[in-house]
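Lab manual, section 2.4: Encoding a predicted structure.

Procedure: take the sequence of the chain (677 residues), apply the prediction step described in section 2.3, and record the output as structure tokens. A sample record is shown.
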Amino acid sequence: MVVAPASSECAKVRLANKGWQLLSFNCIGNMSNTFDVLATVPWQMDDKLLSREGFLKFASFDGDKWVGGLVRYGELSPSRGYKIFYSGAEGAAFAQPGIPQLPVENIVLLKGWNWIGHAPLTSYDINTGITPVGSVSGEGHAFTVDDQIKTRSGRTLTFCTYDGATFQGGLRELEPGVGYMVKVAQAVTFRYTRWPPPQPPPPRPSPPSLPPSPLPPPSPSPPPPSPSPLSPPSPSPAPPILPPSPPPPSPPLPFACTLDFLSSDAQGNLVLGSDGDLQMELIAMVRLIEDTTEADSYDPYTCKVRDSFFYECLDIASPQTLGGGLVNVSHGVGNSSNWSNTSSINYFGGAARCHGKVTGDGLVNWLDVTVLLLYQFEKPPYGRANLPRTPAEVRTVDGRHDTWKRCGTNEPRASWQLAVVDDYCALTSPTPERASRRPSVRANPARPSQVVAQPPVDGRSPFALDTIHDLGLQVCEWAVVPGLGKWMRIAVPTVLLSLEFYLSGLAIEQGVQSSEFRVPPFNCTECAPVIRDEPVVTIARFLEYEGVNADRAATEDCATIVGGTPKAALYKNVLSLRQEPIEQACRFDIFVWIPQQPRSGVHVAAQAAAGSPSTLRLAQLGANSADGRAWWAGPADCGNDFGVLMGSSAMDEHRGQVQRKAACASSHCVAGLGATW
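Recorded output:
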């Protein structure tokens, strides 16, 4: 802990930009209501305030006051950073009528991402002004390689990454009034160790002399079970994977999930129990998707299931969802489906029953969000004509068998996706030692009719119709604008309702929404978008290829194509799109602008030097790793080239589609929209 000099003053916290920014408050102590600090700012309707306190808490401005779980169950704290979306006049300032935190408490970082504030009254150099003193468990952990600190103001993202000795990057100081996102590989507690001017940091104390943690240690977990034989040993020199707490038994047969099954307690923690709406379920899904993208692994989801098996109920969709019973399907010009026969549609999960249960595909991604939103907004076929409007009464899935056993395996996203391509009921990712399992059976969505189990054939589902199709994507260079960037085309051969593509060679930290920018002419040289230093995502429908006016195609004949959420179509290296209403879904191709001079927070492999922060960041996201994977045929990725990686998936109202091999950029786009290879 440190005590501030008497001459220090409270930070002047300002909203310098419109949009998202990370802020903190250091003089809100002794206030009867800490949210009074927000009163001096001209907030606009739907401005937002988010905090991550073990789970995402948020509040929104309704035009008169702040509402939401963060206001109802929490209070603002100097030790926390807050992500704020602001749409009012730039430069608005907060009045901080409280007192500073004196003495300043140590900062406790848990494994993973933490949102922290800056309680001291002056700035501290990241490399010389803070010192690790131990984790919450009392062990003497320091920062480890690839730990990261970042902050954001408007469209500017600043960060630094630990290289094993010091933090390197554009972020050099922790400043009053600023919030920070800190990712650590293991729990760390640090203290502020000096006031300016800089002094060499003191030697790291030995474990016996560690000062006590400022927070009481968590209640001890019960003794863990023996490690699962499916979990590989932790590779050296990476930090060891902590042994899992005792897993719950596999869910009973069936574990009857409903759409509304989550609520929050007085502290904002998620608990099992319906609350009348789907807000908590949506937040949980998006949080898991963000964590999965960050880790390029499904560990965040499978370990949640290990700790609380009801998280299985978030896995409500798969590429096979909505398959069966559809008519008037068109893979080219025209509408997709009229939903005249809904009796055999798979509203939730897949077409196969696994171990006697209707299940999702063993992960949580944007396909699950699509299904949740279709129900939320009563889009066909999820309207009140087919399903009850009380979400706690809507039966979804039964919980996949032994999901928790995948926790701690650091299972790559592509690996698991390929496991369920040919064997929807797979228990583990593909390995030479594929374990035998119980038989799968063909599902009849009309509960509770019975089906007869059949033995698996060579470890796979005995039903050919359970096999998920290959997406068959093709990627090519469409146009190059000298000195500025290039347009890439992702050709999609069939109608897709919702998709999640993993991109190679490109990522953006804060995300971008799909653009209304008209697809440029083939081989144009003066067709850069207005915003040239970040990716732009736009689409061209097949109807446009046939000469139909693009405005008519967008408003009359075809569905609207939007991002996975209203905020982003491309987030990190994940591209997510969905069509609404899906009964008007049409075939479309995707066009992506790749800047030659990317701004901060945009990572382009072709423009990044070896060992640079962008190169390391892309590798962390699985967007440029050159490591081959021996089990499947073909290259594991596209190296530094732009492409769509294997494991990318989509719902197509049939058996679903997954990209089996990476679709890497080629230079032989053919002239003209609508032309194919």
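Check your result against the sample. The mean pLDDT is 77.
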